[in-house]
Amino acid sequence: MADDVRLLTDPYLEWLGEQKVPVIEDFGVDLLAAETAPWDLLGARAAFVNLKGRGDYISVVVAEIPPGGSTEPQRHLYEEVVYVLSGHGSTTVESADGRRAHSFEWGPKSLFALPLNARYRHFNASGAEPARLAATTNLPMVLKLFRNREFVFCNDWDFGERLGDERHFAGDGDFIPVRPGRHMWETNFVPDLAGFGLQHWAARGAGGSNIMFVLADGTMHAHISEMPVGTYKKAHRHGADFHIFAVTGTGYSLLWYEGDEEFRRVDWRHGVVYAPPEAMFHQHFNTSPQPARYLAVAFGGLRYPFSEDKRKTFLGMDVSLKAGGRQIEYEDEDPRIREIYAAELAKAGVGMRMPPLPRTGA
Q1: I need a surface site. Which of 104, 187, 245, 346 has the fewest CB within 10 A?
Q2: Is CATH 3.30.70.250 the classification given to domain 168-348?
């Protein structure tokens, strides 16, 4: 075989290796502590985070904007959902022809989407503190699909329909009722995920609530869920690429493959992100004296699921395995789950508020 034959290439990883910024590969990462370095393309410090469970579609870019600084103007043919880790600032978004423009101010725990191929720029409003953003993007999929960087980063096509309504950049939106667990809020900008109103979702257990977001009419998915004090969610599994960001509270998640003897554990607080790998069961536990919220971002949502696996996920994420879904009911979980949780709550000085398990001896 000739030495110059190209086999098993990954255009995203090839491009990434040329950017000369840190690339973090791990199961879970504290994004507030991630080391960054100057990235010429962005005009600010950055790091790439490639989680073990990211799948083929997405990854995270951590951007750090210096005090009083800004990024270079950007536009690109991949979607981007941004979660603000720290700092205060603003973003301007405009159409390709410059005739339509939007500007909005963000702070810690804001969420927004950058409409596809729209020109944008981030500004740090503080003269003393850096601002740190976590952008979840489908750049890996797009670069692997087209393999042409000019096409991805210098494309002049205007997706005018994606720019959205002016009020969607002002923190307003439209509630779209579907059914518990699938209710949606359509917008481009959520000022504060910690205080955003959620909808009750009994099927996922223990008094939890959630809302799904449709952001910039994109294919990227985002939803936020909350667990009351002293409670935990039911375990479930799905395909790779759901990136889970802790928003409020503290706790941990247990992860395991069917048949595993031991659990994998991730402890979380605001700033931590992890991604359950393909078909790995995972379960979230609140150990804090306040409700705990987490944000999940993936490629393929309820409006545009993109893949058959995402379609099955949204249909079966709160349906028991016994009924053909993807969820383990409390009565069917490993007895160690409740025992571990009780011990963790005792250490934290928080009382258990879970309903009794419906089985003998529980």
Answers
A1: 346
A2: no
Alpha helix locations (H) across 103-260? 139-146, 149-153
**Residue 334 above 80 pLDDT?**
yes
d(Cα 164, Cα 100) in Å, to the nearest integer? Answer: 10
Residue-level pLDDT at 359? 60
Burial track 122-131 (b if 16+ CB lie within 10 A, e otherwise): bbbbbeeebb
Among the residues of the chain, which ranges form H helices? 11-17, 139-146, 149-153, 308-316, 335-348
Phi, psi (deg, nearest 5) at residue 338 = -70, -35
pLDDT tens digits along 277-289:
999 999 999 999 9
> Rounded CA gap, 38 and 45, in Å?
4
Q: Could you give the CA distance from residue 197 to residue 233 in angstroms, rounded to a whole number?
A: 19
Q: Are 285 and 254 in contact (CB under 8 A)?
A: yes
Tokens of 360: 């003998």
Summarize pLDDT for 156-167 with one digit per residue, the tens: 999 988 888 889
pLDDT at position 189 is: 97
Which pTM value belongs to this model? Answer: 0.96
Q: Which residues, in sequence order, are bridge partners of residue 110? A: none
Q: Are the C-beta atoms of residues 259 and 268 closer than 8 Å to each other?
A: no
Count CB neighbours of 319 within 10 A.
Answer: 15
Single-letter code of the amino acid located at 303: R
Mean pLDDT, range 233-261, rounded to an integer? 97
Domain coordinates in residue numbering, the chain? 11-162, 168-348
User: Which residues are registered as beta bridge partners of 136?
Assistant: 60, 81
Q: Does domain 11-162 have CATH number 3.30.470.20?
A: no
Average the pLDDT over 143-149 and give the result.
97
278, two tokens: 């393909």
Do 168-348 and 11-162 have the same topology in CATH?
A: yes
